[in-house]
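Per your request, structure below.
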């Protein structure tokens, strides 16, 4: 089977968490969409069609992928999968080549024949897929279609439960033998701890509301409580934390304090005390000591989130923050409800809430939003941070971040001039 993940025009609606990666690499539950589909199916070759500025970095990160390779599409039939669709069943073996799957009125998969490649390579994907759809049999399929970044957080708890059940069925992994070092509230069968994980004494797992899955080489320090549904990825360190339901942590994170309903993509640091809830944190983010976010308004009304400089009502009473790659906060930072933070933003507290929209490569300094630093300073810091985890920043990373710096320059200029007015409007 050949599979290719593709993005539609809604990719731009996912804000800072998708600016540096394809949508198929957004994490929900145990896995990214790519990991979930590839793990569950016998795939001989796979590809990804994403925004051109991401192509080179993603090709380095995923050397087996055919990235934006239309010639590859023309060689054999390929199952195209919309990256915003999370299927109920991860197995795709029963899909017929003459059908197009539709979920919530959105086409989510179709088998592309080699002679149809020209419909996609010579025009827009939306127009090409519309023409292909006219020749296919429509089939209604189940699953979840992600529309906005907060949909990922809403889906995460149920996805952890589904992924836990799937892992147990496919690998026949047995639940962990209970250790004298830690206590379990609920059925022990809903806890799985890797043999290579290190669990210190006085750790409590509460699985009454959902399972907890601890991957290889995780270290959980004493006096930590973890409530399910929860997934902790390989190599992550939990430091005397209070982790509530709905948390997914990708590999190589360092987490402490109080955390609820939040996804850490990978390589993220929230080492210290402070609350973080209903949020998505991208790689290389560092949250300083006592960094805290609001995820609930005092009047319990629907939270609005700035998307492309306009406020979108989520219809949800609990929404936290969405923080892009390499953003950093100093100690005592306070995030407002429903905040978007662009990649490489630097935030220093001024004794009040941050604005709800902080653009990429900007600095919030003692109550003022500034376009202050040259690109080279941001890149040098990022290079140091990545090297600390033995990951090399390549020339392709430099090119992507440089492109992102240029493309967001107008946003920075506009928001830096508007922040006093915007803060007055938000407070009212």
């Amino acid at each position: 089977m050949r599979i290719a993940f593709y993005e539609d025009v809604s990719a731009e609606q996912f804000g800072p968490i998708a600016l540096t990666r394809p949508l198929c690499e957004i994490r929900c539950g145990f896995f990214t969409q790519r990991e979930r589909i590839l793990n569950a199916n016998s795939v001989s070759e796979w590809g990804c069609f994403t925004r051109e500025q991401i192509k080179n970095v993603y090709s380095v990160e995923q050397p087996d992928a055919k990235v934006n390779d239309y010639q590859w599409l023309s060689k054999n039939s390929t199952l195209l999968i919309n990256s915003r669709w999370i299927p109920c069943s991860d197995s795709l073996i029963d899909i017929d080549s003459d059908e197009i799957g539709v979920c919530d009125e959105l086409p989510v998969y179709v088998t592309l024949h080699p002679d149809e490649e020209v419909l996609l390579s010579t025009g827009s994907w939306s127009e090409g897929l519309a023409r292909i759809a006219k020749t296919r049999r429509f089939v209604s399929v189940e699953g979840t279609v992600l529309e906005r970044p907060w949909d990922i957080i809403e889906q995460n708890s149920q996805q952890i439960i589904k992924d836990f059940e799937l892992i147990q069925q496919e690998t026949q992994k047995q639940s962990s033998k209970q250790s004298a070092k830690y206590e379990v509230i609920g059925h022990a069968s809903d806890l799985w701890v890797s043999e290579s994980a290190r669990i210190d004494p006085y750790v409590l797992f509460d699985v009454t509301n959902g399972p907890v899955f601890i991957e290889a080489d995780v270290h959980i320090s004493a006096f930590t409580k973890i409530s399910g549904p929860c997934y902790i990825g390989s190599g992550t360190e939990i430091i005397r934390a209070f982790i509530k339901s709905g948390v997914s942590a990708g590999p190589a994170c360092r987490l402490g304090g109080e955390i609820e309903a939040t996804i850490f993509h990978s390589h993220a640091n929230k080492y210290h005390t402070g609350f973080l809830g209903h949020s998505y944190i991208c790689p290389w983010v560092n949250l300083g000591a006592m960094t805290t976010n609001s995820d609930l308004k005092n009047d319990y009304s629907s939270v609005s989130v700035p998307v492309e400089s306009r406020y979108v009502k989520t219809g949800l009473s609990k929404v936290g923050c969405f923080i892009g790659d390499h953003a950093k906060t100093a100690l005592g930072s306070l995030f407002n409800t429903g905040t978007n933070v662009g990649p490489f933003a630097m935030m220093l507290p001024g004794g009040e809430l941050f604005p709800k929209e902080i653009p990429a490569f900007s600095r919030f300094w003692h109550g003022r939003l500034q376009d202050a630093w040259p690109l080279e300073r941001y890149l040098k810091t990022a290079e140091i941070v990545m090297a600390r985890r033995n990951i090399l920043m390549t020339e392709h990373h430099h090119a992507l971040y440089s492109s992102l710096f240029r493309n967001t320059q107008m946003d920075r200029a506009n928001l830096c001039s508007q922040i006093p007015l915007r803060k007055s409007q938000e407070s009212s």
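The longest helix spans residues 149-171.

Regards,
D.
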